Amino acid sequence: MEIPKFDETFIPILEILKTGRVYKTRDLIEEVKTKFYSELTDEQLKLETKSGDLLIDNRIAWGKSYLKKGGYVFFPERGHVQITDKGKEHSSSLSVRDLENESSLFDFYKQEKQSNSGNYKHEVEISSPQDLIDEGFNRIENEVKSELLQKLKNLDPYFFEKVVLRLLKKMGYGEFIETSKSGDGGIDGIINEDKLGLDKIYIQAKRFNEGKVREKDIRNFIGAMSGDTNKGVFVTTSEFDAKALEKARSAHHKIICIDGQKLVTLMHEFNVGIQVKTIYEIKQIDEDFFDEQ
């Protein structure tokens, strides 16, 4: 079962409210999830929007807001919702178009995407404002990651090793020691997990423009660890072939394989090699302010 689009929550919300009972918003959301979306997995239920809300809860909340806009529900008091007579007589299918009633919202989007108006208009109709915000952020994030990976592939190999070590330090793995560039036995850095260096993590960083990390690369890495530690991180700008991943999994050592996509995702998360360009604020009504009257 897929997570419903916000417009797909219209009918479930109205079905829960059809008795005329006044629901707290939180209770309504929980009952809609229990009655109509019980087949969602734990992973799906834990998915979040960019603002940190649970995605399924956010979709239901937007569905409620649009139903109010269309006159199908109303808010008798703060944090509560109740069905209207119009809501009780709703059709078996209800779309955003029915609720918006040719609102200027769609004119705005048509101007923005005239060249692809058919497909884009359909996307808008099934996307909540939060979905559109998240989609925009995801597009920007993917473009940044793609550009970042390309830059990593063109780096000097020695500087790439420094980037990997800086990332691991930023992730909280402690101070690192760079190995000498000659005769390092395939080890590019060592991280001491404790101040005395009793517990170590060996690092191998391979900058590839083409090709994949092979089984022999993992085998050589294991050999270079020479009984000094049982933990290693192998990082590449490329990918690992199936045999390399199997070798890493079956080794007596604990070896983490980080490919190019995972690498740029971590760099993006921990702000390594990138910087914040703009911060946007999303505001909402302060109900407590108006409760003071």
Strand arrangement within the widest β-sheet reads 4-5-6-7-8
Domain count = 2
Q: What would you call the shape?
A: elongated
At the fold tier of CATH, the topology name of the largest domain is Trna Endonuclease, Chain: A, domain 1
Q: What portion of residues is helical? A: 40-55%
Give the amount of beta strand, in percent: 5-15%
Q: Can you count the beta strands?
A: 8
Task: Specify Rg, calculated over alpha carbons.
Answer: 26 Å
Topology order in helix (H) and strand (E) letters: HEHHHEEHHHHHHEEEHEHEHH
Structural class: alpha/beta
DSSP helical segment count: 14
Report the top-level CATH class of the largest domain: Alpha Beta
Largest sheet: 5 strands, mixed
GO molecular function: endonuclease activity; hydrolase activity
Enzyme class: hydrolase
Domain Restriction system protein Mrr-like N-terminal: 6-89
EC number: 3.1.21.-
Describe the model.
It is elongated and about 75 Å long. The protein contains 14 helices and eight strands. It has helices at 10-17, 25-36, 42-46, 55-69, 85-88, 96-100, 104-112, 117-125, 129-153, 157-170, 215-225, 242-250, 260-269, 287-291; strands at residues 23-24, 73-74, 80-83, 176-178, 189-192, 200-206, 231-236, 254-258. It folds into two domains: 1-94, Winged helix-like DNA-binding domain superfamily/Winged helix DNA-binding domain (Arc Repressor Mutant, subunit A, Orthogonal Bundle), CATH 1.10.10.10; 157-269, Trna Endonuclease, Chain: A, domain 1 (3-Layer(aba) Sandwich). The chain is α/β, with parallel strands linked by helices and 293 residues long. The longest helix has 25 residues, at 129-153. Helix 1 (10-17) crosses helix 2. Helices cover 48% and strands 11% of the residues. A five-stranded mixed β-sheet has the order 4-5-6-7-8, sandwiched between helices. The model is unreliable at 102-124 (pLDDT under 50).
